[in-house]
# Entry
Amino acid sequence: MVAIWALVGGAVSLQGLGTAGYFIFIETPRPTAFALVAIGLAVALVLFGLAFLAYAVGRLRGPSDAITIGPDGLHDRAVSAQPIPWRDIRDVAVVRVRSGRCLVFGVAAGAELRAGIFLRQHLAAAFEKALGYPGYHVHIMGTEAGVESVAQAIAPYATVHRRD
# Structure
């Protein structure tokens, strides 16, 4: 799955470069307002594609497994710098979302700092809390794990609720 994201990122970046190149070098020697907007959108497309590519490469080439579940806690490299101890994990649940099912969880106050939860994940969790979810979710994309297998691996350490 991650290889697909890498291909998508590369393709989107190439499309953006091609579009920008067309408007810069072929369409008009003196860019019109439309051409400048098209160039700006193409550059944004390149950056968006590079972000996909960077994410995919990071997940593929990480120094360890993307998700580690054990007695020390839950470590999803997309969420935190180190494992989140089980004593800090709250309300683990399998929920249904528009795109399918996912595994979500909350954390105790102060756990964000103790586990080194990344700022982008902290902000995303605040948004998810506003939607009524516990906050964080396990990023299984790019792994061979499914929601059920991750839920089963967590079960010895924490209760997994079903809300799907």
